[in-house]
Recover the amino acids of this structure.
């Protein structure tokens, strides 16, 4: 039955037996015991016992020359999704969408949770042994994404990288510059309509943890603002590192906003919606929500609920629709596994969500869901 599972990295006999069986299934020719022992990192005695069991159950056969091979049996292609599965709303929605899509995909989806592990060597080794025919990688730290990707590319396993462009991998995710343009245009339009085109500072709430490519969102913001107001906003920019978290972004924005002259009009473009929620909290804490306009990125449920508040300084968020990622990613993985032609990059749709169109895309959006 198609579906998904989360890997629990046990070392039981069953897991070892699968390693032996899958080594034989992947091998282009029959293998001897010492070959299997090398491939699985098991000792020869353990390999022999496992081979006997597999042979008795009809999964493999022993040839006259004492080599072993797997018998033909239908096996669903395996796809490994490697990411922190929890920790922020966007990633959690991507995980749920993959789990939903896996049920009818004809693929076996393995969820590998790297969490906050600095370097998940054991998980990656397990994926390599499992016989994954394609890997979907979604890592928030750009440096780790490149390091992990290199392991799979060296093994010639097709790789789909979510949100981080990597040489040799198929990119899936946002067009970050275009998403930034939407944010900048929204801020510019607000300033023109509400403040006669005048503002004092543009705060770019960034994240040093993220890949450089995703920072193009903020580059796009400046260009979108310049184009909309026909100005050069670069002289009014303040760069702030919010580390893509609510708490750090709140503290950073509090420091910046307190340092500005009273009644300053401030535009804030945020790396993601977590940063945006931190900025919202800072503006409210200082009682200056009417002097601040904030745009987020991702269109998460929390941001949508905030948008439903007419008094909120959050005026928009650029939606990426992570609830749709699962189906598209698994279709892409199936195409790659089948060796069919694919584009080098697949960009998701972006929509600027604001109070005018929020319920068109999310009819159930409500401020009551705010925690």
């Amino acid at each position: 039955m198609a579906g998904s599972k989360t890997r629990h990295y046990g070392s039981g006999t069953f897991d070892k037996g699968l390693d032996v069986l899958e080594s034989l299934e992947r091998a282009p020719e029959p293998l001897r015991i010492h070959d299997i022992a090398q491939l699985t990192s098991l000792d020869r005695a353990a390999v022999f016992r496992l081979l006997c069991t597999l042979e008795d159950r009809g999964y493999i056969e022993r040839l006259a020359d004492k080599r072993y091979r797997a018998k033909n049996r239908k096996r669903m292609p395996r796809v490994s999704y490697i990411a922190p599965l929890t920790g922020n709303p966007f990633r959690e929605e991507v995980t749920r969408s993959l789990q939903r899509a896996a049920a009818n995909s004809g693929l076996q989806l393995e969820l590998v949770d790297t969490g906050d592990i600095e370097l998940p060597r054991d998980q990656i080794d397990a994926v390599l042994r499992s016989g994954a025919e394609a890997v979907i990688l979604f890592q928030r730290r750009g440096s780790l994404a490149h390091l992990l990707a290199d392991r799979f590319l060296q093994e010639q396993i097709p790789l789909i990288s979510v949100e981080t462009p990597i040489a040799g991998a198929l990119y899936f995710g946002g067009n970050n510059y275009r998403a930034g343009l939407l944010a900048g245009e929204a801020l510019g339009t607000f300033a023109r309509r509400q403040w006669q085109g005048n503002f004092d500072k543009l705060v770019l709430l960034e994240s040093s943890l993220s890949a450089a490519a995703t920072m193009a969102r903020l580059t796009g913001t400046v260009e979108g603002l310049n184009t909309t107001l026909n100005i050069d906003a670069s002289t009014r920019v303040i760069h702030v590192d919010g580390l893509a978290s609510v708490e750090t972004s709140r503290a950073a924005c509090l420091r910046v906003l307190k340092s500005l002259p009273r009644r300053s009009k401030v535009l804030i473009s945020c790396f993601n919606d977590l940063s945006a929620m931190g900025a919202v909290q800072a503006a409210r804490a200082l009682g200056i929500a009417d002097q601040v306009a904030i745009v987020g990125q991702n269109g998460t449920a929390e941001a949508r609920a905030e948008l439903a508040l007419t008094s909120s300084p959050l005026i928009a968020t650029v939606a990426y629709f992570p609830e749709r990622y699962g189906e598209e990613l698994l279709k892409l993985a199936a195409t790659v596994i089948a060796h069919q032609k694919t584009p080098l990059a697949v960009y998701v749709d972006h929509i600027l969500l604001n109070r005018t169109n929020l319920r068109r895309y999310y009819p159930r959006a409500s401020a009551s869901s705010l925690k």
